[in-house]
UniProtKB/TrEMBL annotation:
PROSITE patterns reported in the protein's UniProt record: HTH_GNTR
Record keywords, A-Z: Aminotransferase, DNA-binding, Pyridoxal phosphate, Transcription, Transcription regulation, Transferase
Protein name from the UniProt record: Transcriptional regulator, GntR family with aminotransferase domain
Keyword Transmembrane belongs to the record: no
InterPro entries registered for this protein in UniProt: Aminotransferase_I/II_large, HTH_trans_reg/aminotransferase, PyrdxlP-dep_Trfase, PyrdxlP-dep_Trfase_major, PyrdxlP-dep_Trfase_small, Tscrpt_reg_HTH_GntR, WH-like_DNA-bd_sf, WH_DNA-bd_sf
Organism encoding this protein: Salinispora arenicola (strain CNS-205)
Length: 485
């Protein structure tokens, strides 16, 4: 799926390219080429996108066509642009910079390791009483076989109420319980995606979702998010949908992972309308929807704008409650839920009844649990921001108003090298390229604020020392980090 970038769109992405560092020492064409390479490296300009014609870009930037021609020539020479006479020019990366989208791992039980690769909280104190209460409820189910492909009725009812309470009327028949959000996504892909089909995702995006799409042999196109608010460029996002006409789009509009951006209600409505117009299905990941901070008012659920069963929503208990409780769900039309159940029986039959009963009791206490989580995360976020400002002031961070992660723009394309060095110093990091395709996003690093305050401060201290040493010593040998979640 190839997207075409118009001249005014690329001009908006380039912004004040004349003011880039070192601009006064570079001719115009070199500065323009460097700015376009920067957009590619940061994932804001997708790979395989057709750039505007030289004349069109020159008019949009109000510069001479000769300058654009020279910039395009330099990009071709550096391996960032491929051109064919009469057909146009497409973005690419030099062959030796490509990176596979696989390699997701299992965490090591290393008590001395400060793990910033996993964006998830420890279990809340309410979990153990909920488990004890669930065990007392279990005898009601012991007389049956225990297989409930769509989930036990009381959990489906509880999940449906959470949507209705958010202004999206939902019946239990529209809910399917899964073994976590990742399992939910896998089931949706089995039902809606054919191998080789086109899928649109954000860049950056959730690594495990990218891995699931790679496993289904999806042809992935990206919409690059800006590091700062609002993140999504509405014109580019909707234009990519119209031009590429993907069969599926996987998006995280609620405190996007990893950037923390929150999509506006207006864009959600336009997104759903455009998806319907081009025949695309939307898979909306709401993993972080409960974790608004700073009193942020949440927009309506994306599915509330859906009138044609184009939106399938996935969510779960991992982020607001506990990752060890493998309970997720899918919200879709009732007929879609039945088709998902038919697809599921060939995979894993059903979710554990006891775990579902624990989830019922936790959801009954959601106001108390979620309020405590929000207060905890707000405090930890502010400590992490303060530590970064004190120890790494050159790094640029947009303050997220929800979710559990910071998306830090570093002072150079060093994310992978920093992660390798940090592993040796007892800090596990999730480097930027893990959240993108083909080796982009080296200037970025995801930093969750889910660890205790003291651990966050210690982690930043170690990272700052490593960053200082990185310019003075050789790079350490490669060591694969653990889970990114």
């Amino acid at each position: 799926m190839t997207s075409q970038i118009r001249g005014n769109q690329l001009a908006r992405l380039l912004g004040q390219w004349h003011a880039l560092p070192g601009r006064r020492r570079s001719p115009d064409y070199a500065a323009l080429a460097a700015a376009i390479r920067g957009l590619l490296a940061d994932g804001r300009l997708p790979l395989g996108a057709r750039l505007p014609a030289e004349r069109e870009l020159a008019e949009a930037l109000r510069i001479s066509r000769t300058t654009v021609t020279a910039a395009y020539r330099e990009l071709r020479d550096s391996g960032h642009l491929a051109s064919r006479r009469g057909a146009g020019s497409w973005t690419m990366l030099p062959g030796n910079h490509r990176m596979a989208g696989n390699g997701l791992w299992t965490p090591l039980d290393d008590r001395d390791m400060l793990d910033l690769g996993v964006a998830a909280l420890a279990a809340p104190p309410e979990l153990l009483p909920a488990a004890q209460a669930a065990a007392e409820d279990l005898p009601r189910y012991l007389g049956g076989a225990g297989y409930h492909p769509t989930g036990i009725s009381e959990l489906r009812e509880a999940v449906a109420r959470t949507y209705s309470n958010r202004g999206l009327p939902t019946s239990p028949e529209q809910i399917m319980v899964t073994n976590g959000t990742q399992h939910a996504l896998d089931l949706v892909l089995r039902l809606t995606h054919n191998p080789g089909g086109s899928v649109l995702v954000e860049a950056p995006s959730y690594p495990n979702a990218l891995a699931a799409l790679h496993a289904r042999r999806a042809r992935i196109a990206t919409h690059g998010l800006a590091p700062d608010e609002p993140g999504w460029d509405a014109d580019l996002l909707l234009g990519t949908l119209r031009q590429g006409r993907p069969k599926l789009a996987y998006l995280i509009p609620d405190f996007q992972n990893p950037t923390g951006h929150l999509m506006s209600a207006e864009l959600r409505e336009r997104l759903v309308a455009t998806a319907h117009a081009v025949g695309a299905d939307l898979v909306i990941d709401e993993s972080f929807v409960d974790l608004s901070l700073d009193g942020t008012v949440m927009p309506p659920p994306t599915a509330s704008f859906d009138r044609h069963s184009r939106v399938v929503t996935v969510g779960g208990m991992s982020k607001a409650y506990w990752g060890g409780l493998r309970i997720g769900w899918i919200r879709a039309s009732a007929p879609q839920v039945q088709r998902l159940a038919a697809a599921r029986v060939g995979v894993d039959m059903a979710s554990p009844v006891l775990d579902q009963l624990v989830a019922v009791h936790l959801l009954a206490q959601s106001p108390t649990i979620v309020a405590a989580r929000r207060a905890q995360l707000t405090a930890q976020r502010d400590v992490l921001l303060g530590a970064l400002a004190d120890r790494l002031p050159e790094w640029r961070v947009t303050v997220p108003h929800g979710g559990v992660t910071l998306w830090a723009e570093l002072d150079g394309p060093i994310s992978s090298a920093l992660a390798r060095a940090a592993e040796q110093a007892g800090v596990r990091l999730a480097p930027g390229p893990r959240f993108g395709l083909d080796g982009t996003l080296e200037r970025f690093l995801r930093l969750p604020f889910t660890l205790p305050v003291a651990d966050l401060v210690e982690a930043v201290d170690r990272i700052a020392a490593i960053r200082y040493d990185l310019d003075r010593v050789g790079r350490p040998g490669w060591s694969e980090p653990a889970v990114i979640a």
